[in-house]
Amino acid sequence: MSLRQHTIGISIFCLVASVAPGTPARAAVSDADAKNGVVECTTALLNDHNPGIADKPDKVICFQAYISNFNTKPRDGKPKFLGVPHWVAHHVKRAANSPESGERPTTWFTVPDLAKQGIAPTSDSYAFSSAFRKKHKNWYDRGHLAQKYLAERLGHDAAWFTHNVANAVPQLHVFNAGPWLTLECMTGAWANKYGEVWIVAGPVFTKTMSWMRSDNKKAVLPVAIPPKEFKIVLRKDGGTWDALAFVYPQNHKTYAKGPFDPEIWLKSVADIEQMTGEQFLSGLPNAAALKAKTADKLWPVVKSDFDSGCAKQAADVK
Q1: What pLDDT score does 204 carry?
Q2: Mode of pairing for the β-strands spanning 196-204 and 85-93
Q3: What is the pTM of this model?
Q4: Structure confidence at residue 22 (pLDDT)
């Protein structure tokens, strides 16, 4: 079943309000949650960001610009929780002009209930001293899964609350600011060219775990470091869905210098399912064919399709 088929009964974060039989549930948002950007998980919002493209809901947390399926499953040993989402899904529509503003919060938001339980980190988990950062130039950033500049198409608050740990995984700075940013800019260009795209992104783990532990506050929750990350981008061509799927390693020799070509990291959705244990696209009519397909090339774009904040990435387009 797709997430939209689980509107009633799935583990949606926050309290569920009383509703008449047969009426989709509405999640009541507390003041603490709202201050951290959480909004009601309405049917309309779920279907907008996830029209059957991502499955296996765990703890679904809704924001204006995206939905996060946060990992609350305990593991053997310590640390007990990974501190990252299974995936984040968001819908991006065409924008005439979408420059990224420089305005950002000084610290990231969290999900208070999950943080109190030791399941979700806070901004402090990603905080390191200036001395440590100076010594480790390519250390881990709070890496967006739903990008801030794409969320700004929906307004200030939508972009502001992309800075929530429910939308983050540890990303090496060179990766975050280089090849991953290029792919994020490309998704914006595809949305501009084709009218809209849907994006699902998340971590890829292996049996050997590594952890990010802050040197500033030793007692804060460690966060699991994914050695790879995936992104699935979907669009409609008439009544037919098409997909591009990518798996990027966090560290690779080609990241030393651009341009960065997303095409070399193309995989199939089936590959991503095998790597992550997640399930995707079951709500789409041509799911089996989409999952099996590994695209030969990227969807075509031209420099004018890119947003103004992606001028460097647009210059790299062949």
Answers
A1: 98
A2: antiparallel
A3: 0.91
A4: 33
Per run of 10 residues, the mean pLDDT along the chain (length 318 residues) is 42 35 52 95 97 96 98 94 98 84 90 95 94 94 96 94 98 97 96 97 94 85 97 93 98 94 97 98 94 96 92 87
CATH of the domain at 169: 3.40.570.10
Alpha-carbon dihedral angle through residues 41, 141, 106, 308, given to the nearest 10 degrees: -80
* Nearest one of 162, 77, 80 to 114, comparing CA atoms: 80
Domain of 262, in residue numbers: 3-315
> Would you tell me how many other CB atoms lie within 10 Å of the CB of residue 79?
16
pLDDT given at position 152: 93
Q: Would strands 59-62 and 211-212 be described as parallel, antiparallel, or unpaired?
A: unpaired
**Given this model, what pLDDT does residue 4 score?**
44
Going by the DSSP 8-state scheme, the letter that residue 308 receives in this structure is G
90 residue type, one letter: H
Q: Which of 56, 89, 88 is nearest to 73 (CA)?
A: 56
Distance CA 290, CA 196 (A): 18
Q: Which residues pair with 90 in a beta bridge?
A: 199
Other Cβ atoms closer than 10 A to 37: 25
Residues in CB range of 195: below 8 A, 6 or more apart: 93, 94, 235
What type of residue is 169?
V
What pLDDT does 12 receive? Answer: 42
* Total domains in the fold of the chain: 1
Q: Are 255 and 261 in contact (CB under 8 A)?
A: no
Rg, the chain, Cα only: 19
Tokens (6 digits) for 117: 């339980």
Report the alpha-carbon distance of residue 213 to residue 125 in Å, rounded.
Answer: 7
User: Which residues, in sequence order, are CB contacts of 208 under 8 Å at separation 6+?
Assistant: none
